[in-house]
Amino acid sequence: MKPACKGVATAAFVMLAVTAGAQQKAELMANGTPVAPVGLSGQPLGAGPFLYHTAEQQDVKVTVVARDLEYPYSIAFLPSGEMLFTERPGRLRIIRNGVLDPKPIGGAPPARFSGVSGSLGAVHGYMSLVVHPRFATNHFIYFTYNKPIDAQRANVVVARARLENDTLVDVREFLAGEGLRGAVCLTMTPDGMLWIASGGDAAAQDPKVLAGKVLRLRDDGSVPQDNPFVGKEGYRPEIYTMGHRAALGLTVHPATGEVWLSEMGPNGGDEINIIKPGRNYGWPTVSLGRTYPGP
After folding, report:
1. How far apart are CA 163 and CA 277, in angstroms?
2. Rounded to the nearest 10 degrees, how much is the dihedral formed by the CA atoms of 257, 2, 73, 159?
3. Which tens digits make up the pLDDT trace of 4-55?
4. Which CATH architecture is the domain 68-274 placed in?
5. Is 138 helix (H, G, I), strand (E, B) or coil?
6. How would DSSP label each residue in 144-208?
7. What's phi and psi for 168, nearest 5 deg?
8. Helix residue spans in 25-180 (DSSP H)
9. Are 187 and 251 in contact (CB under 8 A)?
10. What is the distance between the alpha carbons of residues 223 and 220, in angstroms, rounded to a whole number?
């Protein structure tokens, strides 16, 4: 990405007077858990573009390419530069040359989405999206979503499909249910391995279930034989690491090839972890945070 414009940055120093005191009390509560204020909700977005001055010898220009979207969640770029993204109610969309195609991608399976207020902190509907590193030849994309079982229940699904002429074909479920929960995240390394991160509570320390783990699969859904727990009694072979609370993002370091996980911890306990084979990242036995009500 080219810098929008170069210029001289100025820095402003602001001094704040802070009075020490007790922890603030939340105005809103839900089942004993504090609820954050709505913040900027409902404020209209201007036409843009917007120019933000920085202290890094260049300014940042932000251009609005699509608006009035319904809970967009995950972005992935095709080799052509076209941008795919998910909308949580169950749509896959595409932006070409800075213009949103008004018609969603066809063939997308239905998802269960009960709105952002469906349950506190819940993430459901269409979630993570990743493009195969050899998309130019195989047209594979991978995505996670909540597949309806009935009016009240749904399974978290990790699926693969081919994107052909703005339509998903040969949709295949790699994992469905299996204890996967929360904002299940995906990434792919250049060797074509699919990485999956799922949240978990006490189950994060149970090697017989997939919740609270980072998983590693081949691009066809099979288990690589060099996964760290393959052949170890009592362990699921898909597991690469364990002890994770709530996965919110996986990415691959462009220079080292390491897989990095952003993980929502309890209050004050968020983490960024570099994923190493066979490691246990501690949750819920070890955490630097605390429960939301305070203890």
Report:
1. 32
2. -50
3. 443 333 344 444 444 444 455 556 677 777 776 666 667 888 888 999 999 9
4. 6 Propeller (2.120)
5. helix
6. EEEEESSSS-EEEEEEEEEEETTEEEEEEEEEESTT--SS-EEEE-TT--EEEE---SGGGG-TT
7. -85, 130
8. 135-138
9. yes
10. 9
Q: How far apart are CA 219 and CA 194, in angstroms?
A: 6
Q: Are 120 and 33 in contact (CB under 8 A)?
A: yes
Apex 195 CA angle, 190 and 199, nearest 5:
155
Residues 6+ apart with CB under 8 A from 177: 155, 156
First to last CA, the chain: 45
Cβ within 8 Å of residue 29, ≥6 positions away: 35
**244-267 average pLDDT score:** 94
Q: How many residues does the chain have?
A: 295
pTM metric for this prediction = 0.83
* Other Cβ atoms closer than 10 A to 22: 5
Contact in structure between 276 and 241 (CB atoms under 8 Å): yes
SS3 at position 65: coil
Residue 259 CA to chain centroid, in angstroms? Answer: 14
146 - beta bridge partners?
A: 156
* pLDDT tens digits for range 76-124: 999 999 999 999 999 999 999 989 999 999 999 999 877 655 444 567 8
Relative to beta strand 271-274, strand 259-263 is antiparallel
Q: Report pLDDT for 281.
A: 96
Q: Where are the strands (E) in 218-292, listed by range?
A: 239-242, 247-252, 259-263, 271-274
In the chain, what's the furthest Cα-to-Cα distance? 61
